[in-house]
Specification:
By secondary structure, the protein is an alpha/beta fold. The chain has one domain (7-275): Aldolase class I (TIM Barrel, Alpha-Beta Barrel), CATH 3.20.20. 47% of the residues lie in helices and 14% in strands. It is built from twelve helices and nine strands. Strands 5-4-3-2-1-9-8-7-6 form a nine-stranded parallel beta sheet. Helix 2 links the parallel strand 1 (22-28) and strand 2 (51-55). The radius of gyration is 17 Å and the shape is globular. It starts with 6 loop residues before the first helix and ends with a helix.
């Protein structure tokens, strides 16, 4: 089942035409506050983000490391809700009709919202894809199949422990791209080994025609460039979220210049990705 006619497919086609990999950036919706988050989100395309992952804040993000857990907590404490996340996307879409937005998170907030209601509102807001880390392929009827029917890409994670027997099951209803988690464990901890990542990307490519994005453990422009030489996109999350956290004062408020600093860091990452294959 392949629903690759939307913004994600168009963006990867454009990247292929340009002969380069993409930069996928992750921020948590509502972190550190709604206004600062909106400024960062709206500025990401100009800073060089080719695709954007927007984290759905959740009180128990078990696959995430301390940086993204803290970001989720900041957003929730600031009053962030699933409805407000969709409003953020809607506002972004009014200014940018091309950059794909993927919501990343856990099933609980979507289940609480109501699957069909959520999908209808997500499509209307301009969401292109979902990465839901706690729904295995065995649960595809819950959200994956309805999402595909609604025209929303369902992006799956593959990991170093996903063997050849498991891989076809993981890829069965995957669309948009495959997100390869380059290290075993939680986000934002170790860094990836490029040789191992290269072999893993090659293995995934034997099983699917979908683009392969690689994330977890990419913290610097040089590391992003290394991944951009072997994958279709490099995903940077915890390093950006940490940069946001570094710009917050003791009261938890955004210091002046936080958004500009974060977008400056994204520009550096983008420059690394763009020069990787030159």
């Amino acid at each position: 089942m392949n629903h690759d006619t939307g913004r994600i497919a168009h963006r990867f086609a454009k990247l292929r035409a340009e002969g380069r990999a993409g930069l996928v950036t992750f921020i948590t919706a509502g972190d550190p506050d709604l206004e600062t988050c909106r400024t960062i989100l709206d500025g990401l395309p100009d800073a060089g983000a080719d695709l954007i992952e927007l984290g759905l804040p959740f009180s128990d993000p078990m696959a995430d490391g301390p940086a993204i857990q803290a970001a989720s907590l900041r957003a929730l404490n600031g009053g962030m809700t699933t409805r407000k996340v969709l409003d953020l996307v809607r506002g972004f879409r009014a200014k940018d009709g091309a950059t794909p937005i993927i919501l990343m998170g856990y099933y609980n907030p979507i289940h609480a919202y109501g699957v069909n209601h959520f999908l209808a509102d997500a499509v209307e807001a301009g969401v292109d894809g979902l990465i839901i880390v706690d729904l295995p392929p065995e649960e595809d009827e819950e959200l994956c199949i309805p999402a595909l029917k609604a025209g929303v890409n369902f992006i799956r994670l593959a990991t170093p422990t996903t063997d050849d027997q498991r891989l076809p099951v993981v890829l069965q209803n995957t669309s948009g791209f495959v997100y390869y988690v380059s290290i075993a464990g939680i986000t934002g901890t170790a860094s990836a080994d490029n040789t191992a990542v290269g072999a893993a990307v090659g293995r995934l490519k034997r099983h699917t025609d979908l683009p392969v994005a690689v994330g977890f453990g990419i913290k610097t422009p040089d590391q992003a460039a290394n991944i951009a030489r072997i994958a279709d996109a490099a995903v940077v999350g915890s390093a950006i979220v940490t940069r946001i956290a570094d710009g917050i004062d003791a009261e938890g408020k955004a210091r002046p210049g936080l958004a500009e600093d974060v977008l400056g860091f994204v520009r550096e990452l983008s420059a690394g990705v763009r020069k990787a294959r030159i």
